[in-house]
Design brief:
The structure is a homodimer of 399-residue chains.
Chain A lengths: L2 E3 L3 E3 L4 E3 L1 H5 L4 E3 L4 E5 L4 E4 L4 E3 L3 E3 L3 E3 L12 E3 L3 H13 L4 E5 L3 H12 L3 E5 L11 H13 L4 E2 L4 E6 L5 E5 L2 E5 L1 E4 L3 E3 L2 H5 L23 E3 L6 E3 L4 E3 L4 H15 L13 E5 L2 E7 L2 H6 L4 E8 L12 E8 L5 E8 L3 H13 L4 H4 L16 H11 L2
Parallel strand pairs in A: 1-4, 8-19, 10-17, 11-12, 11-17, 12-13
Antiparallel strand pairs in A: 2-3, 5-6, 6-7, 9-18, 14-15, 15-16, 20-21, 22-23, 23-26, 24-25, 25-26
Amino acid sequence: MPYYIGDVITDYKKLVIRTPEDFQKNGINVRIKTRVEDIDSQKGLVRLSDNSSLPFDILVMATGADAARLDIPGADLDGVFVLRNLTDALRLKAYLNEKECRKAVIIGGGYIGMEMCEAMKNLGIQTTVLDVLPRPVIRWDAEFAKMIVDELGKNKVPFLPETRPLAIEKGIESRLVLKTDKGALDADVILMGVGTRRNAALAKAAGVEMGESGAIKVDFRQQTSREGIYAVGDCCEVFHRVAQRWVYFPLGDIANKQGRVAGQNIGGRPTEFPGIVGAQSFKVFNLEVGATGLTEEEALAYGFQPVSAMIWGLPIGRPMAKGEKLGVKLVADKTTGKLLGGQCIGEKGAVQRIVGLSVALWSGLPIEEVGYLDLPYAPPFGGAWDAIHVAAQELMKRM
Amino acid sequence: MPYYIGDVITDYKKLVIRTPEDFQKNGINVRIKTRVEDIDSQKGLVRLSDNSSLPFDILVMATGADAARLDIPGADLDGVFVLRNLTDALRLKAYLNEKECRKAVIIGGGYIGMEMCEAMKNLGIQTTVLDVLPRPVIRWDAEFAKMIVDELGKNKVPFLPETRPLAIEKGIESRLVLKTDKGALDADVILMGVGTRRNAALAKAAGVEMGESGAIKVDFRQQTSREGIYAVGDCCEVFHRVAQRWVYFPLGDIANKQGRVAGQNIGGRPTEFPGIVGAQSFKVFNLEVGATGLTEEEALAYGFQPVSAMIWGLPIGRPMAKGEKLGVKLVADKTTGKLLGGQCIGEKGAVQRIVGLSVALWSGLPIEEVGYLDLPYAPPFGGAWDAIHVAAQELMKRM
């Protein structure tokens, strides 16, 4: 008899929080507002927060990760939020409405910062993004990050680089004041988007082996070191096909696929998760931004000999273009000639290229082949020489 | 000393026709309004239409293909056009302007028909498309073709299926009348988009070997059967990586790549053209349409055991969707489990998927891996399970 144990049940498709009864109709037992205190993997027992126990033959660890909260004074004041799950989102939305927020500060120029500054701005809230680092979304090339900062600027969202939050206090003009090493900022709402913390302690305590990254170690079938215990999602590692090693890569689509693979194996159909290549993307105002594979820094750290080329091309055919730009950066390995990674940015077509590059990385294609890939050319979608080809041909010259 | 011999020199990047002087500045000799009458491949001589001869060590055949013109009475009347090159386009444009055309009929529901009906409509010209076949762009699934016909209808462009043109005559109400087996149609301008005819006769006469398709046979370096004679573009064959055979596939991006490969080889840098997978796309009003690889019919003809699945998914994440549809059809080989082809259609994101599927075909990926490909997930660009994954998972069930 399958049990789901957790805090709440969220239905992302319908953007609602569900009751256990919704699931019991379908024969799934759900215990909400219940924690697993510990796991006895020898006896096959989980001890719950109400002191009862449940026996198991198969256990799936899907404990995910929590949004990190900066350890500064005032970090838990009313009006300071993190954003991790649907409950967080509904809570933030209610606050924005009820308190008629006019000013927001977002701490962190990562995905949460990029996606939420647009959402806040669309609600008419004056929004500022800051980061301790010199630029937002640090995994992207500095020239691409500049285009993002310009896009934020065009939309009246200031980005404050190298700014360290020190404390949050109650304000007078506004509900809150964020003190930083560069001065104070008024805010009615403060959102922290400063990364995640994997929830692997429960598994660790049960004697489940951790990987090098500190997340739960799994095999290609999502099995942990303990028979009968599986792990999926942001609490466990995943195999990176380009790096050829197990890494920690907490993204929602990977979690989904791992869940399916675990389910297939548990249900008796042996299935292996073929791994990832590090594909990712986001939208910020009118910019598409994507990346896949390894950056030069990562490639170096993993022992490759990275060579890179960056070009500014067009997302559509030249005769149709009206000033659009598409930046493409490619990284390849000098030793093997293989593509190692790519980044794209532009008003349109950036994600389209990252899709192609991701499949090229998946398949381990050499950069020479990337320069001649057969892509669905038509002027509304690219040139006869696509920006991918141009970047690859440029990179070939440097190999 | 390199010579270019041809009718005109077009510069597509700037959409102009160039003079020989533009090229002579850069040391390239150009003979326009000159035909090559025959080639003596033994002596290395081309005889020109002015009865002079030019010696060659290396000869590149880039004779392309001509737009076919229906062999019906009145096919060469003033106001009847084909569309192949920049000169054709400029001639048509001038006619539309000068004659103040109000009604257009396009014969042929292929790429030319789909792209030109939108262009005509945007000029305020009442436009009808007809075809002898039961639906437009016959290579796409009937259900997808229906979506295209609906899109034409929404834009007030009637599509007349199974309609055979019989004759063109001068009109009274309008400049021309197209007689068909289903009745007569008034038109001020008639455009024939009924396919191409490869120009391989000159090469054939010179003893250059033809491929099974009837186009010039080449190897991976674009060399023909005669040493020193290369062929590129719409006059020659190309290797299809999925079909694993040489085929005739006259598309502009392929021609471009073949030209580069021939140039590299001639210039002393041995380069092989890695072939194509059949990627193609077009836009018609608000629809993106793309295909890659083999259809079921082609797959059968080439000896595969095709199995297919079609799904209607979403081009973006479900919570952001506002009724958009994305159709994905995949074909795989039952024997090997490999992906053989794909088709997509939708208001957005169709080409993005065809890019991914094209690289998957390029790499010979099995359908199982297509179902787990790592794609750059973000809600503005797709679901955590992308439409590609959903279609592939559906197809897996049928294998």
